[in-house]
Amino acid sequence: MPDDKSDRSPWNWLLLLPIAIPLLTFLYNSDEPRLLGFPLFYWLQIAFIALGVITTTLVYQMTKRRRQR
Fold first, then answer.
1. Residues 6+ apart with CB under 8 A from 24
2. Which of 58, 53, 52, 54 is nearest to 10 (CA)?
3. DSSP of 19-64
4. Is 37 left (phi over 0), alpha (psi -120 to 50) or beta?
5. Residue 61, class by beta-carbon neighbours within 10 Å (0-12 exposed, 13-18 middle, 19+ buried)?
6. Which has fewest Cβ within 10 Å: 2, 54, 57, 66?
7. How many Å apart are CA 26 and CA 19, to the nearest integer?
8. pLDDT score at 1
9. Any domain includes 49
10. Assigned domain for 32 exists
11. For residue 2, is the peptide bond before it cis, meaning its omega torsion is within 30 degrees of 0?
């Protein structure tokens, strides 16, 4: 009986992106550019949250389809 409940999907590697990218401090080690008066650091943190949501949704959708087969 094969084990079809394995979590070893290559799509799971994408989940490292929202962890690794915010650790690259040179991306937001600046005051400029400003967006609506907010320095780069603040609006880039919101972009990192969006990256995490998009990446998690993509991985979930791709692995969910694989499980349905």
1. none
2. 58
3. HHGGG-GGGS--S-S-BTTB-HHHHHHHHHHHHHHHHHHHHHHHHH
4. left
5. exposed
6. 2
7. 15
8. 43
9. yes
10. yes
11. no
pLDDT tens for the chain, 69 residues long, are 455 566 788 889 999 999 999 999 998 888 889 888 888 889 999 999 999 999 999 999 998 865 555
- One-letter amino acid identity for 60? Y
Q: Count how many residues are written for the chain.
A: 69
- The structure tokens 């690794």 sit at 20
* pLDDT at residue number 38: 87
Assigned token pair, 10: 């290559």
29: containing domain: 11-64
The DSSP secondary-structure symbol of 66 reads H
**Domains of the chain: total:** 1
Residue 26's identity, in one-letter code, is F
